[in-house]
Amino acid sequence: MAKIKGAIVVNKERCKGCRLCVVACPAKVIAMSKQVNSKGYNYAQMANEDACVGCASCGIVCPDGCISVYKVKVD
Amino acid sequence: MTIEDIIKPENLVYKKPDIMNDRPMHYCPGCSHGVVHKLIAEVLEEMDIVEDTIGITPVGCAVFAYNYLDIDWEEAAHGRAPAMAVAIKRLRPNKLVFTYQGDGDLAAIGTAETIHACNRGDSITIIFINNGIYGMTGGQMAPTTLEGMKTATCPYGRNTRLNGYPLKITNLLKELDGTCYVTRQSVHTAAAVRKAKKAIRKAFENNINQKGVSVVEIVSTCNSGWKLSPEKANEWMEENMFPAYPLGDLKDTTGDNQAK
Ligand SMILES: Cc1ncc(C[n+]2csc(CCOP(=O)(O)OP(=O)(O)O)c2C)c(N)n1
Ligand code: SF4
Ligand code: SF4
Ligand code: SF4
Ligand SMILES: [Mg+2]
């Protein structure tokens, strides 16, 4: 059966660390970085890569348009 | 399959819309304004009408919206955006003309302009960000502030004996014959954002089809003004704002009931 695999790319300089993407992710893929960006914000990153299904919920709720979402079908 | 195999241009399913430029937006982390800006950009791109759109920015936190979306903009004095929109629409009837306004802008200083624009019925769209507070100026009480809600100018909570009742202005606007579509949406979850996008699309289509005024209220958070984290602000909004400002369509005379 075809499986869906997803991945996200976060523009970490644009991220303001609001955590709304963390809350929106149904698969608990995202966590905040320990490092900060040049503005001093902890930024969102994939912490649990394998779980991402590319549903784009994180990108959709991000107020700053920081997240690009990729999705592919695996046979 | 590695992450590199997934992250390829042909697998891209979501990104920041192109007309939202790379300037960092000045909004507080987690502010609803950014989500609504993104939706406007997405809908204009999908309708392929970017070159024929004129937005009017308010006074309020969204005063610099013109810096973030690469479309034509005018800046109105506080509350005057709907009057300006009517003037622009009459001069350029084939343009998509919309205002973007906060609750202080639309429902306090701009009440007269809002009501008369909605009564005149020119085909403009009003995007109304109702966060129940004056965000920009430091969190003062707005006409839309909830009963009992604390702000800088009602530190013990809004007292209706003293301050009157929360103004459900969208309910008034639906009564006016100039409005064709009046809806109340939110952007606190992915599902809500998708619905809000459909509503904005419908409102913009009414605009170019000359159907009258469309009003899209977005019940929003101002986590800074509310003194909550973005996450808690969303929860507070669900618990407190939604009972006072229930989501859904209030009016639709366009004969097309897709956006629900
Ligand atoms: C004529 C005039 N009166 C008052 C102000 C001060 N002022 C600036 S923004 C604002 C209210 C903004 O609140 P709202 O419209 O709800 O927007 P928000 O910041 O919450 O998005 C006020 C009263 C002003 N700039 N101009
Ligand atoms: S695309 Fe979906 S599953 Fe993947 S990180 Fe975003 S919200 Fe989570
Ligand atoms: S929602 Fe956007 S701005 Fe907020 S933490 Fe996630 S990526 Fe950063
Ligand atoms: S003050 Fe409130 S409305 Fe203004 S940017 Fe901050 S959170 Fe948004
Ligand atoms: Mg406001």
Structure description:
Chain A contains two helices and four strands. Chain A is mainly beta. Chain A has one domain (3-74): Alpha-Beta Plaits (2-Layer Sandwich), CATH 3.30.70. In chain A, the strands form two sheets. Chain A has a two-stranded antiparallel ribbon with strand order 1-4. In chain A, strands 2-3 form a two-stranded antiparallel sheet. Chain A is elongated, with a radius of gyration of 12 Å. Chain A starts with a strand and ends with a strand. In chain B, strands 3-2-4-5-9-8-10 form a seven-stranded mixed β-sheet, sandwiched between helices. Chain B has a two-stranded antiparallel ribbon with strand order 6-7. Chain B contains ten helices and ten strands. Chain B has 260 residues and is an alpha/beta fold. Helices cover 36% and strands 19% of the residues of chain B. The radius of gyration of chain B is 18 Å and the shape is globular. At the A-B interface, strand 1, helix 1, helix 2 and strand 4 of A face helix 1, strand 1, helix 2, helix 8 and helix 10 of B. Strand 4 of chain A pairs antiparallel with strand 1 (12-14) of chain B, so a sheet runs across the interface. The structure holds thiamine diphosphate, iron/sulfur cluster (3 copies) and magnesium ion (MG).
